[in-house]
Amino acid sequence: AAKRRGKNNFQYYTEEMHEAISRRMILEKHLRTALQEEQLKMYYQPKVDPFSGQITGMEALIRWHDSELGEVSPAEFIPIAEETGLIIPLGAWVLRTVCRQNMKWQQEGVAFLRVAVNLSPRQFHQQQLVEQIIDILHETGLESKYLELEITEGALMDKTDETMNVLRQMKEIGIFISIDDFGTGYSSLEYLKQFPIDCLKIDKTFIDEINKQSMQSNIAQVIITLGNSLNLKVVAEGVETAEQLDFLKNHRCDEVQGYYFYHPLPIQDFEQLMRSKRGNGCQATLLQ
Ligand code: C2E
Ligand code: MG
Ligand code: MG
Ligand code: MG
């Protein structure tokens, strides 16, 4: 009986594996088409000053609605794009689309905000990334101080000589650089000190830890202290509750982002929000 069950289990797993593989292949095929036919969209999630509630920036997040597959999460398709190399054209599309949109918002007087674009590891380590960014800024007319790049710890701590070189070039151009999902990877404190970076984004898992019972000390607090001592700005992602916000304010976190304030918004909703803010006499802060 055991033998038979073993055999059945084996069959069960192969079927499951087969399903996973075919979904992956279908996703890859559809993603290629979506990119060619411009079916991908960017949403924008405001970043907020926790003390004044003013919108201080935004993060661009990709969205994909496929007619057959429905809504596919970037958490699922970005890794596939990474593995297949599709991230290179996709990443270029994201950068160009976001810079163009931000420039348009400035020209129309909708918003003067820095926009953050996520770079996945392969995208960050691609040859000619810096040249590509310079071209896109030139082509769209966006000033470099209105562009921020969010790079994960893992991507930065890999090939550190090359990373240092790329970061220095980006810094020279005047781009703002953030470490995304900070605390989940393995940062060398030595490199953290040496790299010309501007900001640490505390990963949501540490924000989730904040609640009334664990107000004493937690990793979020440690990261804020670390950021302050390295002269870096600290941003909290995934803020969902008033308790989390209070905690972050008490510990002087510089910026917050999360559903408690705003979800990622499609272009029209973002524009409506910015216009309503202005109507309230609460204008979005201009960058210094
Ligand atoms: P991330 O850069 O760490 O982005 C934060 C994620 O948390 C986003 O998920 C955002 O929608 C979500 N989020 C924001 N506030 C809250 C909150 O209060 N509660 C909860 N539960 N979630 C919140 P999303 O949009 O699904 O993106 C997932 C990941 O996919 C991103 O993580 C990023 O690594 C990647 N990604 C998204 N867009 C792009 C892109 O354009 N290019 C690249 N290379 N990666 C992207
Ligand atoms: Mg991010
Ligand atoms: Mg993040
Ligand atoms: Mg995250």
TrEMBL record:
UniProtKB keywords: Hydrolase, Membrane, Transmembrane, Transmembrane helix
Gene Ontology MF: a single term: cyclic-guanylate-specific phosphodiesterase activity
Residue stretches making up the EAL domain: 24-278
GO cellular component: membrane
Biological processes annotated in GO: signal transduction
Lineage top rank: taxon: Bacteria
Protein name per the record: Cyclic di-GMP phosphodiesterase Gmr
Upper lineage: Bacteria, Bacillati, Bacillota, Negativicutes, Selenomonadales
